[in-house]
Amino acid sequence: MATHQKKESLMPIEGVWDLTIATPVGRIKPVVELRRNGMEFTGVAHGSGEEVPLRDIVVDGDRITWKQAVTKPLRLNLTFAVTVEGDALTGTSKAGRLPASKVTGRRQVTGTD
Amino acid sequence: MHVQIVLFDGFDPIDVVAPYEVLYAGGTASGGAVTVELVSAEGPRDVVSGTGGLMLRATGTLDPARPGLVLVPGASGRVGEPGEVPDIDADAGGASEWRQDEFIPVLLGRTLTTELPGLLKAVMDNPRITMAAVCGGSLVLAMAGLIEGRNATTHHLGLDMLEATGVHAVHARVVDDGDLVTGAGVTSGLDLGLYLLEREIGPRVAHAVEELFAHERRGTVWRALGPMPAAL
Predict the structure, then answer these.
(1) Domains (range + CATH), chain B
(2) N or C: which end of chain B has fewer CB within 10 A?
(3) Residue A113, in any domain of the structure
(4) In a domain? residue A44
(5) Quick check: B120 and B146 in contact, CB under 8 A?
C-alpha cells in the first residue's frame, strides 16, 4: 500500500468510485475507495462481498496506477492505469500478459468527505 | 483408487472421455484397482457439453469426502479473438442463457456461480484426494482461487490467464505438483490419464493401456525438482 505522488493532481482523485472492468469471463464491478492523507494515498476495493487493499498506488497528475488482487467473483491480479476527469475515470486494467482491457468509473456523489 | 470426473455445462467431451477410457482400462488391466465415475456438482443429470450439444450423464454427486482422484475437464466452444471480453456481468454468468458455441472463458467462468467451487475447495482440503485437471479445468480451479502459487499447466491459449490468477503457469504437457496434477490442451488428457496410472498403479499397467490405445505419452512430466535450468 506504499503510495507515491509524483505531481500534485489538478482535481481530487480521492473518493468512492464505481468501476466497470472488462475481463475474459465478463464484467466485474468493484467499488474502489481512494483516501488521501496529505501526500499519501491508500485505497481498498469492495466487490462480491470481499475487500482487498490497493497496492503500489502512484498518482501522477490526473493519472493513477495501482495493483489489485481480485478474489471474487474470480481470482485475478489486475494492474490499473486510469485518468481522472471530473467525476469520470477511464483507462485500462491488465491481467498479467493478457491484452489490456477497458476500465470506466464514476465517482459516487455521496460517500466522499 | 476411485476417480470422480466432474461434468459441468459446456465441458469438452475429449477432456472427459480421454482420461475416462484410459483410467477405466487401467482398472481392467489392474484387476479393479481403479474405478471411474462421472459426477456433477448438482448430482445425477444429463450434462450438455460445449461441442454440438453432445451429452454425457453424470451418475453421482461430486463427493469431496471420498478418497482417490477428482478430475476437472475444460470447456469447449468458441476460442475468440485475443483480448476478447464478453458483454455480460461475470457475477451473473450462471444466469446468462445457454447457447452453443459460447466463448470458452465464459463457460469456465460460469462454473464459479454454481456449487462447484465450494465442492472443489473441499476436495483440495482433503489430503486423501489428488486433484487433476485437463485443459481449461485448471482455469476453473485457478479462477476459484484454489491453486494460487501452485505449479500447473492448461491449454496453451489459456496460460496467460492461468498466470494472471496467481498460479505458476508451466508450459508442459503434464505438470505434477504433488496432490495437483494438470494436463495441457485437449489431447493431453490421454497423457495425464496414462501418467496418473503410472504414478498411482504402476508403469506396467500404464504401459499395457498405452499399447492398447496406440498412444505414447510425449514430453517430460514437469515437476519442481532438480536444478533450475540456465538459458539455452
Answers:
(1) 2-78+100-133+187-222 (3.40.50.880)
(2) C
(3) no
(4) yes
(5) yes
Task: Residue window 105-144, chain B: list those with CB within 8 Å of chain A.
Answer: 105-106, 108-110, 112-113, 142-144
Which cell goes with A7? 505531481
Cell numbers of B153, please? 499447466
Residue A16 is assigned to a structural domain of this protein: yes
Residue A35 lies in a domain: yes
In this structure, what CATH number is given to the domain that contains residue A85? 2.40.128.120
**Interface confidence: ipTM more than 0.90:** no
Kindly give the confidence (pLDDT) of every residue in chain B, 232 residues in length, as a single tens digit, with 9 standing for 90 and above: 999 999 999 999 999 999 999 999 999 999 999 999 999 999 999 999 999 999 999 999 999 999 999 999 999 999 988 888 888 888 765 556 788 899 999 999 999 999 999 999 999 999 999 999 999 999 999 999 999 999 999 999 999 999 999 999 999 999 999 999 999 999 999 999 999 999 999 999 999 999 999 999 999 999 999 999 999 9
Q: What is the pTM of this model?
A: 0.93
DSSP string, B176-232: E-SSEEEE-STTHHHHHHHHHHHHHT-HHHHHHHHHHHT----SPEE-S-SPPPPP-
Instruction: Quote the crossing angle between the two packed helices B203-213 and B188-200, to the nearest 10°.
Output: 150
Q: Which domain holds residue A27?
A: 3-107
CB pairs < 8 Å spanning A and B: 88
